[in-house]
UniProtKB/TrEMBL annotation:
Transmembrane intervals: 6-28, 40-59, 79-99, 106-128, 140-157
Pfam families on file: DUF6790 (PF20589)
Alphabetic keyword roster: Membrane, Transmembrane, Transmembrane helix
Domain of life: Bacteria
Alphabetical list of InterPro entries matching this protein: DUF6790 (IPR046740)
Keyword Translocase recorded: no
The species this protein was found in: Nocardia colli
Name of the protein in question: DUF4345 domain-containing protein
C-alpha cells in the first residue's frame, strides 16, 4: 500500500471529530456567553463525534465486516457483530447526551471510555506486540478512541464547574477575620 493510500485510510476516523470541532466553532462564533458556547460544543461533540462516529462504525461492521477486519489487520470473526452493537450503544449514548445534564454527560463519557479506551489499549498492544500497522489499527482510530470520551468528559466537567456557584471570597475573608478577632477577644477576657 502506498503512503498516500495508507494515510488516507488511517485518517478516515478523524472525519467525525473534525466535523464536530468545525461545526462547534462555526456555531459558537456569536455565542452570548461561555456557558452557551460550552453547551454548543458539548452537543456537537456528543452528536457528531460520539453519536455519528459510533453509528458509522456500527454500519460498517454490519455491512462490510471483511473490509473492516482487513483494515484493522484481523481475520474476520463473529465478534465483529458484537463490536457493531457495542458501537450502536455508544451512538445511542452520544445522541442521548444532547439533552443530558453535565453529570449525565460525564457518565456517558466514562461509559464510552470503558469501551474505547480498552480498544485503544488493544490497538496499541497489537501494534507493538504483533507489528499490526494496518490503517484501522493505528493512526486516526487511536486518536478517536482516546478523544471521543476524554473530550466529552472534559467539556461536561467544565460545564459542571461553570454552573456551580462559587463562594464569594470577599465574604469568606471578612468572616475569617471576624472569627479571628472574636477568638482574640475571648482570650483576653
Amino acid at each position: 500500500m502506498s503512503s498516500m493510500a495508507y494515510l488516507a485510510q488511517t485518517s478516515v476516523p478523524l472525519f467525525w471529530p473534525l466535523v464536530a470541532a468545525i461545526g462547534a466553532l462555526v456555531a459558537t462564533r456569536h455565542s452570548p456567553s461561555r456557558a452557551a458556547a460550552l453547551e454548543t460544543w458539548q452537543r456537537w461533540w456528543a452528536v457528531v463525534a460520539l453519536g455519528f462516529g459510533s453509528l458509522w462504525m456500527t454500519i460498517t461492521f454490519l455491512t462490510v465486516p471483511e473490509v473492516m477486519a482487513t483494515a484493522i489487520g484481523f481475520d474476520s470473526t463473529p465478534f465483529q457483530f458484537e463490536i457493531a452493537f457495542a458501537n450502536l450503544g455508544l451512538a445511542v449514548m452520544g445522541f442521548r447526551a444532547v439533552s443530558a445534564s453535565a453529570r449525565e454527560r460525564i457518565t456517558i463519557g466514562l461509559g464510552a471510555g470503558m469501551f474505547l479506551w480498552g480498544a485503544l489499549i488493544g490497538h496499541v498492544y497489537q501494534w507493538f506486540a504483533h507489528g499490526d500497522h494496518a490503517p484501522g489499527n493505528t493512526g486516526g482510530v487511536l486518536v478517536c478512541d482516546l478523544l471521543f470520551p476524554a473530550v466529552m468528559i472534559a467539556l461536561a466537567y467544565r460545564a459542571q464547574r461553570l454552573s456551580t456557584p462559587q463562594p464569594d471570597t470577599s465574604t469568606l475573608l471578612s468572616s475569617n477575620m471576624t472569627d479571628s478577632s472574636d477568638a482574640a477577644g475571648s482570650r483576653q477576657a
